[in-house]
């Protein structure tokens, strides 16, 4: 699980639907990726970082432990 990403989503009031709309993928695919069943691409990571207006690095945002 991506703890910082989940925290930032909650802080901004964004949902998996917002991510799916931004990335052009299904909500179920977003859920699989958020639950670490498959990986986000670098492009997807950058787009999520932009959506969140996150000032840290992609590595920080997608840290898993």
CATH architecture annotation name: Orthogonal Bundle
CATH superfamily: lambda repressor-like DNA-binding domains
Gyration radius, to the nearest Å? Answer: 10 Å
Helix/strand structural class: mainly alpha
User: Percent of residues in beta strands?
Assistant: under 5%
Helix content: 55-70%
Q: Major β-sheet, in short?
A: none
CATH fold type? 434 Repressor (Amino-terminal Domain)
How many structural domains does the protein architecture include? 1
Report the strand count. 0
CATH class type: Mainly Alpha
Average per-residue pLDDT, rounded, comes to 95
Low-confidence stretches: none
What structural keywords apply?
0% strand; mainly alpha; 65 residues; 434 Repressor (Amino-terminal Domain)
Describe this structure in words.
With 65 residues, the chain is an all-alpha fold. It has helices at 3-12, 16-23, 27-34, 42-52, 58-61. Helices cover 63% and strands 0% of the residues. The radius of gyration is 10 Å and the shape is globular. GO terms for molecular function: DNA binding. InterPro entries: Cro/C1-type_HTH, Lambda_DNA-bd_dom_sf. This is HTH cro/C1-type domain-containing protein. Residues 5-61 form the HTH cro/C1-type domain.
Brief synopsis:
The protein is an all-alpha fold.
Task: Lay out the secondary structure.
Layout: H1 3-12, H2 16-23, H3 27-34, H4 42-52, H5 58-61
Organism: [Clostridium] innocuum 2959
GO molecular function: DNA binding
Domain HTH cro/C1-type: 5-61
């Amino acid at each position: 699980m991506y703890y910082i990403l989940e925290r930032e989503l909650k802080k901004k009031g964004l949902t998996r639907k917002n991510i799916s709309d931004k990335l052009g993928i299904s909500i179920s695919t977003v859920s699989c990726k958020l639950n670490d069943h498959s990986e986000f691409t670098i492009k997807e990571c950058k787009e999520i970082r932009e959506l969140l207006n996150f000032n840290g690095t992609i590595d920080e945002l997608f840290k898993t432990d």
